[in-house]
Structures
1.
Amino acid sequence: MPDSQQFAALLGSWGVTPETHVVAYDASGGAVAARLWWLLRWAGHDYVSLLDGGYPAWQAQKLPVDADQPALMQGGYPVRPGHMRVVNTADVEQGLEDDSLVLVDAREAERFDGRAEPIDTLAGHIPGAHNRHFRINLDALGRFRAEADLQESFRHLLSDTDRQLVSMCGSGVTACQNLFAMELAGVDFTDAGAPALYVGSWSEWIRSAGRPVEALLETIN
């Protein structure tokens, strides 16, 4: 997580105020832009959207583009941390022990299964986690699927109201795209039992050799 004061200064340098409508976009189906959406919501800023289809959709409509960098401004933003739920590694360990959480991993199947790992030092996934690659939330044009489709797609994960749903990935970035899709599907993130983000995700989990790891049919303790 960023330092809240540094994040406040960054938002202020962009000219963001509590009344600003922030539109985040990327060129990868919201995989990165959703992290900014989540951070702004965590900081107490509700007026934030994702550009559906991102930069490719903007270009496809031949809308104006330029290479200018806006001048930075002075000031800060009144960050109020804690408006989105987070869990840490100790929470995940406890949740796995007492079966009180459902882990949803947003990485592609090759990384989840341990068949490939281009980033981290160890391949595989946390035992018991469900694999839901973030691109499942997109249609063939790279835009988010309709609300009813997303509701049906998430139904089996969201139906378990007795356990906390926790979204994770490699480093807590693409996991936010799954959370964004859940909101599109009608999940209320102001609810006390709303899904949470495991910020450290896989990269933090494997820092300790004592934590269990699964890779294909192999279990490493």
2.
Amino acid sequence: MNLSENEIEHESGSPAPGEPEFLVVGKLRRPHGVSGELWMDVLTDFPERLKPGLTVYAGENHQLLHIRHCRSHGSSLLVTFEEFSDPEIAGILRNELLYVRSEDIPPLPEGEYYHHQILGLRVVDENRDSLGTVIDILETGANDVCIVRQDSGAEFLLPIANSTVLEIDLAKGFMRVRLLEGLI
């Protein structure tokens, strides 16, 4: 099936921006010490952006918090919030996910994308024939690899590389690719 640009946009199923409102940056663990510090597992590629004054949101209800202090400790962080100075009270945040608003993340350089921007994109070949939808992304080291689910339910792996990805149009919700022989 060959899709026009308008059909590609319609078939993606994503709203025009296609972005979630909140993005997970960490998971809060147990309190540490007597000043309300919490251990936090880092779940972002940009932990350096987690610094004093940053507005964050905790849990499913997205409780508004402001980072007071943040310090590295091994692969984790120790973080305190303006709203909590007592370890007993801070303990209510135990095992909660910590979020930032997607509108607050800085843009990436031209031609680079956050994973959440790629997920859900419709994948089409050079002739705009539908190949499926990106359902997951694997980080392999050399380059990321998309898992693409075809309309039939079958899946294939698509390396995100200059030799395969010809165009990504987030506004229209599609990725145009050149398939390597034997890929599907």
3.
Amino acid sequence: MPLAGRETGVEVGLQVLLLAADGESMENPRPSRTAEKHLQQAQRRLSRTKTGSTRRTTARKLLAKKPQKVRRQRQDVHQTVARRLVRTYDTIYREDLRVATLVRNDHLATSSSDAGWSQVRTTRESKAACAGQHVLVVAPQSTSQDCSAGGERVEKRLAVRTHVCPCCGFLADRDHHAALNMLGAGQARRGLAA
């Protein structure tokens, strides 16, 4: 595969699955959220059947297929996203996220599990390795807090989705701003930043 000569920082999120530093985003289809209704119907169908009956066996087999379909949909999205990133960029900078600790948050656990951030990371890194490209890890501390234009720290809660710097006036979406910071930190780590 010919080299594209481009590099980017990538931020994972819940609104969009991935957001690159140049503003390119990959949608988050939320496969388990959309399949919840079908899964509940299959569970109700199973609960109404008699133990040991043929209908129960059929209902159990149908119920077992529901999570498998969600898993395959998620894998398909991750493969597509990873392929797109590897074709577009030679070097990708990503956060060193501890997904296991993020999933402990009761408010975000279902959404972050549905996004499958660990699987996205693994798929992207394996595709990049096969293509002879690089995925470099950047420390996750303050990627959305530090201003990518002026360098000032702007404290904000997780609910605040827009970065506004009071010093330089820089305005950006929080995830896009974090991707810009990862690009800058990755370039500095490699000695490419000015």
4.
Amino acid sequence: MAKVHTPEKLRDLLLEVIVGAAGGDEANWRKALGEVEKLPIAFNAQSNWAVHPTGTKAQRAIAKAVDLVREQHRYVAS
């Protein structure tokens, strides 16, 4: 079973995947990614977190990273 991360740790993991796959400056990706939002589990039993990236190019790269990470980390802790 996968470890349950805090939103901050999950954001770091997402950034590691994005920078590793797409390259570029981590600070720019951090800005494009935004924060990991913890959602009430009652609204979506599949996962309790979301991100709201900015920028068209960034959204594509981030969406792929989110799909990969969500497979192993469906939930975030408080």
